User: Which sequence fits this backbone?
């Protein structure tokens, strides 16, 4: 729905920017023409199940036609994608490897992140952009590890967008050749649609949430390159089918990689950090190849 409602307009606050509002989505809902019945989102009824997401917009908003919703979504995401492209260019210029961590609230993102930072040590520059609707509690936990963190409070908004990340990046220095984690707002719906300029989305799913989450929230798992199955130390105490969960994730996204992890027991942490190093290396090699091709093209002009 964030691609339609433009939530959080004027609500975002970034630490250190006093009373500075970021109006990312500029559209109005007032005086919207009520759509004719034929324009409304098709309601599909299956027994006692009502499906409102079967139209072209894949969503429903009272008073908005499907065509209008599609247009609003294209406008919002198009604007975000332009900011994301700018972020990506800045990341590339810094040789900065960026991961967007997404999950439900309470999945253990911050605990997993602080443990990851501890294990990564100071081999290279590290920083975190923290997204929450309110408070800087998670950013404070990150700073306690000695790593800089910028808190972005989204107010009523339920996700970070590329414009917010671009502003937060200006408050971080010395990241050349480093690693930036973006911990998104806890939400398995809206962050799926918003490119922040990251190299990869990493979906974190706690075993306390139920193995069918990938089927209930398919867009997020389709957008992610990696699923971290978190809090595996709790498995002996739960009725959680690990293999079914992985199968559901791969039904949505056949290419998704899966690592089982626990910040408490340490299970899978080495594999997770190795994945980061492998993907970072691949990103750098791709960048080198692109620069070589560009250099060859320039040499051909001599």
Assistant:
């Amino acid at each position: 729905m964030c691609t339609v409602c433009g939530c959080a307009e004027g609500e975002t606050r970034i630490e250190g920017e006093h009373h500075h509002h970021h109006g990312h989505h500029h559209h109005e809902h007032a005086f919207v023409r009520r759509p004719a019945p034929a324009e409304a989102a098709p309601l599909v009824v299956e027994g006692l199940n009502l499906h409102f997401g079967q139209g072209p917009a894949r969503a429903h908003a009272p008073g908005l036609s499907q065509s209008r919703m599609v247009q609003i979504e294209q406008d919002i995401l198009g604007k975000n994608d332009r900011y994301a492209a700018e972020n990506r260019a800045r990341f590339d210029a810094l040789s900065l490897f960026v991961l967007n961590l997404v999950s439900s609230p309470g999945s253990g993102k911050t605990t997993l992140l602080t443990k990851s930072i501890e294990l990564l040590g100071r081999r290279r520059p590290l920083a975190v952009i923290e997204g929450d609707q309110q408070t800087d509690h998670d950013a404070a936990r990150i700073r306690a590890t000695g790593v800089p963190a910028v808190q972005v409070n989204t107010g009523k908004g339920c996700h970070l967008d590329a414009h917010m990340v671009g502003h937060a990046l200006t408050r971080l220095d010395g990241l050349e050749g480093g690693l930036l984690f973006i911990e998104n707002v806890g939400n398995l719906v809206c962050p799926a649609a918003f490119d922040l300029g990251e190299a990869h989305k990493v979906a974190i799913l706690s075993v306390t949430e139920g193995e069918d989450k990938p089927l209930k929230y398919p867009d997020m798992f389709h957008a992610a390159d990696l699923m971290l199955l978190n809090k595996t130390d709790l498995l002996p105490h739960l009725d959680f089918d690990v293999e079914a969960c992985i199968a559901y994730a791969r039904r949505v996204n056949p290419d998704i990689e899966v690592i089982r992890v626990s910040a408490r027991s340490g299970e899978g942490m080495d594999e997770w950090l190795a994945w980061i190093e492998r993907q970072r290396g691949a990103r750098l090699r791709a960048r080198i190849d692109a620069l070589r091709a560009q250099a060859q093209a320039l040499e051909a002009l001599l």
Summary: The beta strands are 13-14, 44-46, 49-51, 97-103, 126-132, 149-153, 179-183, 200-206, 226-230, 257-260.
